[in-house]
Amino acid sequence: MKLLVTGAAGKVGQAFLPAFLNEQRFSEWEVVALCNNRVIETDDRRVTVIRGSMADERIVERSLEGVSHVLHLAAVKESPDLAIDVALKGLYLLLDRFRRSQVGRQFMLLSGDCVVGHIFQDYAAPITEASPRRAYPGIYGLTKVMEEVMLEQFGIQYGLHYTILRAPWIMEKDDFRYAFELDDTQFGGPPWETLVDETTLERLRQGGFFPAMRDPSGGFLKRNFIHVDDLVGAILLSLDNPDAYGELFNIAMNDPVDYGEVSALLETSRQVQRADIATPFHSNWLDNAKARKVLGWRPMIGLEELVERAWNYRRGENDPRIVWYPG
Q1: What pLDDT was estimated at residue 43?
Q2: 257-258/222-223 β-pairing
Q3: pTM to 2 decimals?
């Protein structure tokens, strides 16, 4: 068997490859790592690195030679010139060639909860795989919706064995801690300047507060997360698994993260004060029941461990924080 991994040098790819290569079930498999802006370094004899754009038909053809499985991780965010090439043209070229392959067995896509709008769209019930796609504004959510639909249609039109894993905000190392920083070291969003005035924001920055966002109902915001280690576990369980063919799975923590619970943990362990911040964002619950039942997958990292890992992590000089996607 031979696995093509796109986006192999990204956050998920760098966590997935070592786990895959150490998994006994895949010990005889070869890997093709397709990289573009960043290139992985490896001396593993089973791994071949190809550098180039998915929008280049010659690169796609070369990358898919003898490939039985594809794990499509490559993504860009709010950069329309790049997003269209990767999400639409690149994915189409991969799928159209892969469906014609005599050895192709499974095409796996990593998608995101941007397709259901995560905190931007309101859902009255837990979000399942059958919930309507309602992306938030911007090119990233739109392209992820189109990726999911394109893959499903290749399954319908050509009988392609596909699997879609839909993940929420993916955490590693100290990401979770920096998601709540109030200065320019913040990881992700939202920009605090859009939620509080400058005077209040400066006071919060000076006082060491934790920003406990609240939803329009007044309750603490609940948002979905997944640690990259748990996501990698779901990928490994889905790979070459007939039960996963033709299926979409939500891969998230069992419960969404309650920002009030996070602040309570930090008040106890880190002597941090809570600062309530009103927001227009909606609390949602990404239901992972299907993945637990069909794949036998269980997320191992809950809220307390997510907090402990993030706040205890210390970066070395050779371990800088990385913005994985432009935009």
Answers
A1: 81
A2: antiparallel
A3: 0.95
Q: Which of 106, 92, 97 minimizes the C-alpha distance to 149?
A: 92
Could you tell me the two tokens for 324? 């994985």
Locate all alpha helices (DSSP H) within 84-197, ordered by sequence: 91-98, 139-158, 175-178
What contacts 24, CB < 8 A, 6 or more positions away?
none
Phi/psi for 201 (5° steps) reads -60, -40
Task: Write down the pLDDT at residue 321.
Answer: 76
User: How many Å separate Cα 181 from the centre of its chain?
Assistant: 21
What is the structure's pLDDT at 326? Answer: 41
What percent helix, strand, coil does the chain show, rounded to 5? 40, 20, 45
Structure tokens at 320: 């800088």
Ranges of residues in the chain with a pLDDT under 70 are 78, 322-327
**Dihedral Cα 75, 76, 82, 88, nearest 10 deg:** 40
Identity at 52, one-letter amino acid code: G
| Domains of the chain, CATH where assigned | 2-171+224-250 (3.40.50.720), 175-223+255-284+293-312 (3.90.25)
Residue 325 CB burial class (10 angstroms; 0-12, 13-18, ≥19): middle
What separation in angstroms does the CA of 36 have from each of 5, 55, 267? 12, 11, 43
Count helices and strands in the chain by DSSP H and E runs:
11, 13
Q: Report pLDDT digits (tens) over 218-274.
A: 999 999 999 999 999 999 999 999 999 999 999 999 999 999 999 999 998 888 899
What confidence score (pLDDT) does residue 78 get? 61
